């Protein structure tokens, strides 16, 4: 938008209507290097300008004479007076629309050609459960992820590495980083350690992507507007003492579906199904799709460099709802990037054939293949354990580690890992303990089973299961100044394995409502609570925001803290989120307290926000995973399991 230039042209054309000469002070006025003829005079050291000029230039309703400097500076212009020539210079930047800023930002990216991105986000799933699902099964799944990417515009290349944390019971099962590499013709995905799955973009039905890659920023903007993309300019923000535009970009359901249909040739893809009923069903699913996108771009006002984007996508289809939020930093513009060398490629068809061959091989074996037990192991410790390790779901992180342990310890060579649900594992453990049978199982702390049964971890001299780690309390930086008593309480808050296990036992094993469970425990452990809180502890209705994760231990810790605070007249709001989002909000002076920060597991986030949060002492020590046995079992180390 070139509003000022247009106004100047009009003024020059009708200058006789404005003024016919200089004021008595012989002042000269230049606006954006254009000389303007106007009546002016200096009074008390301030230049007064004919209001008619202001009306014509800025569209402001003015009468008489107005102070020149104040009027223009109030309208985002700079004013400079050159005393030697009695000349006033006014520089006013052209107003940019949201669309203009986006084009300039993309032109900056193309000119730099390369950049890097790092980001983190959260995916929340909510789905309908089948009627036969167990009562304890949750219909919600929350996952956090981290992303790194290298991007080059010409020739087009993108390399993305992503890691996702999936809550599994009390553990966070970190999935190995998935990798994707894309050029303007091919896409490579890495699902196995040494194998890349290669696909031609045209074979995937996304020919439209290649067209979009080759569009210049202005044409790309026009095309996006055809799909209903909305651009709006929010209030400017300041980051590291620099001014930034904040541009919001959104796309509604209809526009998104139209874009998907054109980009991915959805009609042709759906028609690939040979079964007409399947094709009809898939089209009905696509028609029911409800998806919207909204994201913000942070663009430097001087350079038009985009340094951060925040995005959110909401997705609803039949029985599934998904919300995906992500924050990404963009940096290292113009650096030389070394992209991954692609070797050992395989197509999806070849991968499918390979998987089918493996399945057929396994299918021919009616039982899990285990090593035949040699006669010399009869009467040994291993036989007393029936050569079995009682575990949980096969996909859980602790089961993957147990598989590695079997490769690291000769004592586990002839043991079989028995996969089952967590409930089934606990039932098997309980039955064995009641009969005082020898049993070894996977275990982790904090967990209620350690308060219910006398269990011990087996020594792990090879360190396969890793070392224990402390769980820390974290508070926002200003909490001690704002609520000194709460800060003192959280700094003293600490639960032993038995104490935390009791709360978890009430909630998880006895299926008690969280509110009733915390009330019962706090009431029965009044002396412990008194050691946590300062004298004359009284919140007088002050509000405290308390973050927690959807892990059994974090739920128990947060509800215990909430009950204590409420009993001392505090208003407490529980906020469930991922550690990344909790600590991000806390660093921004939001959430006050988080008592479930795992010292090693969450180290990345704790280090990132160390200047904006305060890490207090441990609330739980030596949280760990490994193999456990009842205390009556006369074995202390994994190395003794075949003696």
UniProtKB/TrEMBL annotation:
Signal peptide segment: 1-23
GO cellular component: ATP-binding cassette (ABC) transporter complex
Short name of one Pfam family: OpuAC
Keywords from the named record: Signal
A single MF term (Gene Ontology): transmembrane transporter activity
InterPro entries for the chain: ABC_Gly_betaine_transp_sub-bd
Domain of life: Bacteria
Domain ABC-type glycine betaine transport system substrate-binding: 374-524, 542-642
Protein name: ABC-type glycine betaine transport system substrate-binding domain-containing protein
Organism lineage: Bacteria, Bacillati, Bacillota, Clostridia, Natranaerobiales
């Amino acid at each position: 938008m070139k509003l000022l230039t247009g106004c100047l042209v009009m003024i020059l054309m009708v200058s006789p209507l404005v003024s016919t000469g200089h004021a008595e002070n012989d002042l000269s006025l230049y606006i954006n290097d254009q000389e303007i003829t106007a009546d002016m005079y200096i009074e008390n050291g301030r230049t007064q300008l004919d209001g008619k000029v202001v009306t014509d230039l800025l569209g402001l309703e003015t009468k008489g004479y107005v102070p020149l400097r104040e009027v223009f500076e109030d309208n985002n212009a700079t004013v400079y007076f050159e005393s030697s020539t009695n000349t006033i210079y006014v520089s006013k930047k052209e107003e940019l629309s949201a669309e203009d800023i986006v084009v300039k930002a993309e032109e900056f990216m193309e000119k730099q050609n390369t950049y890097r991105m790092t980001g983190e986000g959260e995916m929340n799933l909510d789905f309908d459960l089948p009627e036969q699902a167990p009562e304890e099964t949750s219909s919600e799944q929350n996952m956090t992820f981290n992303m790194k990417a290298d991007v080059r515009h010409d020739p087009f290349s993108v390399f993305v590495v992503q890691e996702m944390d999936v809550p599994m019971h009390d553990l966070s099962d970190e999935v190995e980083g998935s990798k994707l590499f894309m050029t303007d013709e091919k896409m490579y995905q890495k699902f196995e350690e040494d194998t890349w799955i290669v696909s031609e973009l045209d074979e995937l039905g996304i020919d439209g992507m290649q067209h979009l890659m080759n569009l210049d920023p202005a044409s790309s903007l026009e095309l996006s507007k055809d799909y209903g993309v909305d651009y709006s300019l929010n209030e400017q923000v300041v980051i590291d003492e620099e001014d930034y535009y904040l541009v919001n970009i959104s796309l509604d359901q209809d526009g998104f579906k139209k874009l998907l249909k054109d980009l991915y040739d959805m009609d042709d893809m759906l028609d690939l199904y040979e079964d007409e009923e399947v094709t009809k069903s898939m089209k009905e699913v696509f028609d029911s799709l409800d998806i919207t996108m909204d994201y913000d771009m942070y663009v430097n006002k001087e350079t038009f460099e985009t340094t951060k984007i925040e995005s959110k996508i909401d997705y609803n289809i039949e029985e599934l709802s998904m919300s995906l939020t992500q924050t990404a930093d963009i940096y290292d513009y113009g650096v030389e990037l070394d992209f991954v060398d692609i070797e050992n490629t395989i197509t999806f068809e070849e991968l499918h054939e390979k998987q089918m061959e493996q399945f057929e091989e396994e299918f021919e074996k009616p039982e899990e293949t285990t090593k035949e037990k040699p006669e010399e192991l009869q009467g040994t410790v291993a036989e007393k354990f029936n050569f079995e390790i009682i575990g949980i779901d096969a996909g859980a992180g602790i089961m993957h580690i147990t598989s590695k342990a079997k490769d690291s310890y000769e004592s586990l060579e002839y043991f079989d890992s028995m996969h089952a649900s967590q409930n089934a594992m606990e039932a098997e453990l309980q039955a064995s303990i009641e009969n005082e049978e020898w049993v070894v199982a996977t275990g982790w702390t904090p967990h209620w089973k350690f308060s219910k049964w006398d269990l011990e971890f087996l020594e792990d001299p090879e360190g396969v299961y890793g070392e224990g780690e402390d769980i820390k309390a974290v508070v926002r930086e200003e909490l001690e100044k704002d609520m000194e008593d709460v800060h003192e309480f959280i700094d003293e808050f600490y639960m032993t394995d038995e104490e935390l296990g009791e709360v978890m036992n009430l909630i998880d094993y006895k299926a008690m409502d969280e509110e009733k469970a915390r009330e019962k425990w706090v009431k029965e452990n009044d002396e412990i609570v008194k050691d946590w809180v300062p004298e004359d502890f009284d919140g007088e209705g002050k509000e405290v925001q308390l973050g927690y994760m959807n892990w059994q231990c974090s739920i128990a810790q947060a509800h215990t803290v909430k009950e204590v605070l409420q009993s001392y007249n505090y208003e407490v709001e529980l906020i469930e989120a991922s550690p990344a989002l909790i600590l991000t909000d806390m660093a921004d002076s939001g959430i006050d307290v988080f008592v479930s920060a795992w010292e090693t597991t969450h180290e990345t986030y704790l280090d990132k926000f160390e200047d904006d949060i305060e890490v207090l002492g441990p609330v739980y020590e030596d949280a760990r995973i490994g193999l456990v046995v009842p205390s009556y079992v006369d074995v202390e180390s994994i190395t003794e399991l075949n003696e």
